[in-house]
Structures are given as structure tokens and as C-alpha cells.
Amino acid sequence: MLKNFLKDYFTFSRTERNSIIILLAIILLLIIGNLMLPLLINNREYNYKEYESELLDFERSIKSHNSKKPNTVNTNKQENKDNINQLFRFDPNTVNENELAKLGFGKHVIRNIIKYRSNGGFFYRKEDLLKIYGMDTSFYNSLVTCIYVERGGLQELPEEKNNNYNAIDDHELININRADTSLLTGSLGLERKLSERTIRYRNLLGGYSDKSQFNEIYGITKAQCGLLAANVFIDTTLIRKININHVNEQNLAKHPYLNDYYAKAITKYKEYAGEIKKINELSVNNILPERIYLRIRPYLSVN
Q1: CB 3.0-4.6 Å disulfide test: which of 61, 170, 206, 232 passes with 176?
Q2: Could you give the 3-state DSSP secondary structure of residue 95?
């Protein structure tokens, strides 16, 4: 029975035997081909002579490019360093276009600065540069130590008796700390937008304390400053004062003459002292720079 089983299992027909022989032949050829292939590849030789001149030209061009590239990069870096990193002290009210370019200001920012000044604008403190359209805060911070404003940014108006801006005869002097937009527009002939800005800035300050502050009104010209100075008077009793012993840091920083840094310095000193008894403590103890102290003093109180 086992013999019959083995016979049935290992007995193939003619067709099956032919198929097995062909399959074995194919496997044998694949094995031989796989063994011979490395020998055929290694023994093959390529002739590069016809491309030799092209290869030499290509190698020379690469060497020439590499020898020139470092010098070009260094030159560009040096030019950028010369053009951008030439830092020097400058007054934004007097610096010219070429000097602004050397400091690294962009063309559109330079144009806006020159336009602002030509229209009568004035920079009263370093931070005023941030008002210029297109001014980048990080770039401003990189230059802040180079910026200075002569005389703390305070421009004095000409003496009224010596200037060309005479008082208008058909009305009395205007109390600028009480006036509204309609009065400034109707009586002085100011443009409505300028009148609105004059009142808005007065409200931000808490009232005008000196006529030199008219220069700080955005967009005002010298002629318009003179017109205001000749036709208004300032009632300092109407100034809205800030009690620095009660005000918080955030509200203190909203005043145009202060910023977050100065507001924080005052608050920290108040916490240390317990109570500020005299306004001049801010100057005596160097809490505020003298120019800032003189500007903000009319607007502070201790009770």
C-alpha cells in the first residue's frame, strides 16, 4: 500500500516532466547570469577622451566661481555693514536724508519723516519717532540709544509782541482750556480737523499749561501755532491733575508725557516710600529725567 502511495505521489506525466525540466533550466541560467554579471561590469572600460576637453572646461569654471564667491560675499557684507550699521547720535528734528539712510532707515520711512517735518511736525521725545508711519518697533529699539532731542523737545514760540501773528481784533482772547471745536474754527478760522486735534490733545494732557505745547499738536504748522498763541490765553486753574498717590500704573502711563517705563518707576517708588509727599521727590530721587519731570509736573498732585 505504501508502494502505491509513493508511486502516485512521485509519478509525473510527460507534460509535467517537461515543465519541470524547463523550470530547472531557467533557474540554472539565472544563477549563472547572477554570478557572471559583476565580472562583465568590472571588465567594461569607458572611453572619456571625447569628453575630456568639456570636463576640463567645467572644472576650470567651478574653480573660478569658488575663488570669486568668498570675496563677493565679504564685499556684500562689508557694504551692508557700512551702509546699515553706521550708528551715531542724531536729532530726528535735524538729521538729513543721507544720514537717515546710513542709519538703516527705509526709503519710505525717510520720506515720511521729512514730510512730517516739512509740514511743521516736531519730535519732542524719542518715542515720537514711533508715530511715523512704517516705523518698526524692533528697529527703533536698536537705535534708541543714539537718539537725542535737543532741549528735551520743547520749542518756544516767538514773543507775541515781536511775531507776525497778531491777535484778531473782533473778539477777546480765547480761554484755550475751555474752548470747543466750533469756537476755534469760527473765531480763529482753523480747519475743523485741526481744531478737533487741538481739543483732543488738550483732553489727553488734562489741559494746556504752556503755549509751547501747541507745537505738539499733530499736523500743526508754525503759522497755525502763532495764530493760536496770539489769540488764546491759558487758565492753568482748569488743568486736570493726577493724584499720583491714588492713580494706578496703567492710567498713569496713558498721559502723553509718560510711558510704561516711567509709570512703573513712579509706582515702584510710591510702593517703596509708602506715600509721595512732594512732587519734587520724583526729580530729587531721579525717578524721572529732568526734562520729563519739568513737562509732567503741572499735571501731578499728591492730594
Answers
A1: 232
A2: coil
Q: How many helices, marked H, and strands, marked E, lie in the chain?
A: 13, 4
CA distance 92 to 146: 10
pLDDT band at residue 93 under the 50/70/90 scheme: confident
**3-state SS class at 216:** helix
Non-local CB neighbours of 288 within 8 Å, separated by 6+ positions: 262, 265, 266, 282, 296
pLDDT in the model for residue 17:
80
- pLDDT of res. 140: 83
**Between these two residues, 55 and 164, which has the higher pLDDT value?**
55
How far, CA to CA in Å, does 114 sit from each of 7, 41, 64, 125, 130? 110, 75, 46, 17, 14
Task: Report which of 232, 212, 207, 216 is spatially closest to residue 299, judged by C-alpha positions.
Answer: 207
Q: What percent of the chain has pLDDT over 70?
A: 72
Q: Residue 242: in which H helix or E strand, if any?
A: strand 242-243
pLDDT score of 142: 82
Question: How far is 204 from 91, CA to CA, in rounded Å?
Answer: 26
Per-residue pLDDT tens over the stretch 119-156: 667 777 777 788 787 888 778 888 888 888 765 444 44
Q: Check if the beta carbon of residue 204 is closer than 8 Å to that of residue 239.
A: no
Phi, psi of 291, deg, nearest 5: -65, -35
Q: Which run of H or of E encompasses 232?
A: strand 232-233
8 Å CB contact between 230 and 167: yes
- Residue corresponding to grid cell 569658488: 66
Cα dihedral 139, 143, 148, 149, rounded to 10, equals: -10
The percentage of the chain sitting over the pLDDT mark of 90, rounded to a whole number, equals 32
Q: Answer yes or no: are the C-beta atoms of 156 and 124 closer than 8 Å.
A: no
